[in-house]
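Lab meeting minutes (informal)
Scribe: AK
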Amino acid sequence: MKPTVILFWLARIVAAIIMLQTLYFKFTASPESVFIFTTVGMEPWGRWLVGALELVASILLFIPATVWLGAVLAIGLMAGAMGMHVTLLGIEVQGDGGQLFIYAAIVLVSATYVFWISRKTIPASIQKWLPSFLQ
């Protein structure tokens, strides 16, 4: 198997595992999740919505025709998470040593790689609207 294929799969798996493992905390209203979403003014609806979107992104990352879409969704979610950390939460939240921020960065990098590798599978009807360097 080619290294590119291995890295492509590894990036998809890493992104999905990180997003999926956080669902338990979001959907069970763990104190840290409630604190985070309260601080950014999105509790409880934002916690549920972000959790649902992370679940969708994780699933889309494993469907060949929608890998690119799962990557785009993960990129958007993680850019938002990192933006909230930088502007409202701080890199470290409740003494976590920046773990959540690091996880978001790992997913962002992984999803960006996955998007770049899978960009040729974007339907032509959508590709025509993308900048030339993404086609």
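Next up, CB showed the second protein from the same session:
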Amino acid sequence: MPATKPALFSSVFKMKCPNCRKGNMFCTPHIFPLGRLLEMPDRCPNCNQKYELEVGFYYGTGYVSYGLSLGVLAIVFILYTLIFGLSYKDNSVFYALGAAVSITLLLQPWLMRMSRVLYLYMFVQYGKGSRMKTHHH
């Protein structure tokens, strides 16, 4: 029976290597201690895919993290509105904003990891390795 390709969605959320979708992208499965939150092996322990494609590669994750944070803020704000309603008369707008900001801050460590995962998935195709051109001097 041939091996089946692991699902993209579950591989992203399990933070698996984009090339093989089996190896872990982070050294620890949990976010604590926070100082080790973003520690990654140099290469996938399963398929040897390089995780940092070039020096400073992960600086681009700031944009992904920003987008994810805005998404979380919007979702929480919308859910608050649907569940509790919104009005300027009773300050519920400020409660909704406070809830959205608080939840986004609490999720920030996970969002930071997820932004790295999504960013690497943009540059590495399943079963093909990196699509980035490397320049040798």
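CB comment: The first helix runs from residue 8 to 13.
No objections, moving on.
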